[in-house]
Amino acid sequence: METEITVYGPLRSATGEKTVSLEWAGGTVADAIAAFVDAYPRAESQLYDGETVRPSVRVTVDGERAALKDPISADASLTLMPAVQGGSRDGPL
């Protein structure tokens, strides 16, 4: 199955492009993220905390927010928004 994935933030440095095509076996959103990291290993630190997808990672399937367990159809497109690091709260506002 081939899926179009649009990436944001530091994931773009891992892919070199805003949108990439990913060949993978199909399955769930979690499976797609795992296949994406297999294809672009530099993205792993932005998407995973150990072996778990970071809770702050946002995924949409065809423009709708998706949970990790949601299935993906063959013609779907994904958007991956990685974990965002927060700033210090001690600085001036």
Automatic annotation (TrEMBL):
<dbReference type="InterPro" id="IPR003749">
    <property type="entry name" value="ThiS/MoaD-like"/>
</dbReference>
<dbReference type="InterPro" id="IPR012675">
    <property type="entry name" value="Beta-grasp_dom_sf"/>
</dbReference>
<dbReference type="InterPro" id="IPR016155">
    <property type="entry name" value="Mopterin_synth/thiamin_S_b"/>
</dbReference>
<protein>
    <submittedName>
        <fullName>ThiamineS protein</fullName>
    </submittedName>
</protein>
<dbReference type="Pfam" id="PF02597">
    <property type="entry name" value="ThiS"/>
</dbReference>
